[in-house]
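User: Second chain of the day. Same drill as before.
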Amino acid sequence: MHIVQVTKDSKIPLMGHIAFGIIDRGSSLIQVRPTSLCNLSCTFCSTDAGPQSTTHKTGYVVDPDYLIEEVRKVVEKKGKTHINIDSVGEPASYPPLVKIVEAFHAMPNVYFISMQSNGTYFTNELIDALETAGLNRIHLSVHTTNAEQAKALMGDSSYDHNKTMKAAERINNSSIELLFAPVVLPGVNEGEVEKLIQVAKQWKCKIGIQKYEGYKYSRKMKGVKRESYYQFYKRLKQWEEKYDIQLVYHAKDLEIQQSPALEKTGDIGERINTPILSEGWFAGQKIAAHKQRAITVNNCDAQPGDRINLRVIENKNNIYLAEAC
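Assistant: Same format as last time:
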């Protein structure tokens, strides 16, 4: 995989792309994605991340100083902000993780910092450092209590489920809040998710169960069908009653408040002439920029440095897609 170092000198903006940078979906929470890289190839991964990816030919790693600078600008515009460090890959694979958490914690308008993780990079030292840096919560991707099933689900025979659970216990005994975040896979791990519910109740930590989704480019499990939202929430309600534990969360339960989205800087249909800056996330894509937003250009064979004409075809959540014209 080709790795692109996203630095200030690269001139690639940190808003506008789905795989790296900053995403604002119109609440007080902003997603901060320092890297797109992942060490696992989970069999149900919605982003087809990891070593076994068949769709992603390029990975991205953002320079920490550039990331901190741009996050500070966004926080100053939005006001009170909850920063969620997440990724289309694994956030804890990012070496300067503690550095960015410290910097975010020092920003006056940041009131909460959370992160997603598969747990494989966590050591006692890293957990302690994240606690000291000011991290508030970890959403831990654990999908079973069975070590052998965990290896199969994570797509890695070396995955150490016991090590991850020991890290989870360390987190739960720290000032960092632990939230188990299993994906329920119909016909595969419902019983194991129920066991995780019992662990969460015993440990007195949160558990936020996720719905299995299959997107165009996601990694799909053979024989597993997506539930409707009605079926999914019916299941959660039944488990809530059975185990007397909260499983359905609203924004306020996860420290998310109402907040206006940042302004969009490009309109659908707008035509732009701009240079190509980088290879894109998918084969056949390139990255350009306009008005401080990264733009993904589909079906583009131009090379970095070439100027092209493009037309914006999508700008939802300030994530921009375009086609050459």
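The chain has a mean pLDDT of 96.

User: Great, on to the next one.
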